[in-house]
Input
Amino acid sequence: MAGIYVHVPFCKKKCLYCDFYSVANSSEVNRYLKALKIEVQKRAYELSGRSIETIYFGGGTPSLLHHEQVGEILEVLKRDFDVASDAEVTFECNPGDVRAVDIEHLLSYGINRFSIGVQSFHDRLLKKLGRRHSHREIIELYSGLRKAGVQNISLDLIYSIPTEGVEELKEDLEQLVALSPEHISAYDLIYEEGTPLYDMRRRGEVEELGEEVSVEMAHTVRKVLTEAGYEHYEVSNFAKPSFRSQHNSNYWSGVPYIGLGPSAHSYIAPWRSWNHSSLSLYADQLLGVVGFLVREIEYITPEMAYEEYLLTRLRTMEGISIAEMRKKEFDIPKKGLSKLVDEGLLWSSGDRYALTDRGWDFADRVLLELAING
Output
């Protein structure tokens, strides 16, 4: 099986914390769509013979596209790829676009999973993040999806926002649990270099929450959501039974996928590739006389494959499998595994090793220990 990621590089307004590639020039949408269709046609051979089990529209802001444009993209994907009839098709939405999202048409095209960028239910915290939506619009969009019969909704939450208190986080979590989405992604705010928020911290305009508070918040998130019946199946992801994100789970399992659109990444072992982060260059290349897309390509060495196996598998509740590592001809870090089990950072069951509750707080150290002792 395989997956497809479609990067929609348009935003009305760049969020202060976001380092994903996007542009504010909506006049380029038609040119983007023409180029994207050509890329689909030219790259279909890369997944020839594989069934496409997941499609993910991310961004940027996919909900800025008109529903007919989304339908055109899916039509081309289904024409040139072997898309499974029951494929998971996810569409990211910004609540600020609630009045423009044509849910009924999107469902008719095959979208069956919606991911909403909530981030917080507190309007003051949304302003801190530079979001362009309100608490009211979150509820309006979520209610609209439910009324339309959508039964697979994921809500994103961000915590450790500057000036946020633990009680405010608890209120956000209570609201999430009350809405009862099938899936929740909860992220500790990261100050990515090159983002406005990073520069604001550097200039002293915002103050990052202390590590002790952030750790307490991470514990609170895990406690509240697991007690509410959500499975903590990956570092930042929680799901009701049978509602894990299949697309993201495939990333962590090494399933091949291609990324379409400017800045999108692809992985087909032992190669990784990515498109340039420039909409104008992307469109110029594909719409030019030659019609050839220049991509950056990286060969994944056995050493890199070993480290990536640890990095991706230890993100999940299933952890690493000794049998799987032997099959891949990886060295088994027996010394490191035993040490980490003794320290209470890993638990073992059969041939599997995974992070304990305490281990989630020291995931980076666990990875380093295993990499050194591999």
Remarks:
- Residues 265 and 350 are 35 Å apart (CA to CA).
- The chain has a mean pLDDT of 95.
- Residues 302-372 form a domain with the Arc Repressor Mutant, subunit A fold (CATH 1.10.10).
- The radius of gyration is 21 Å.
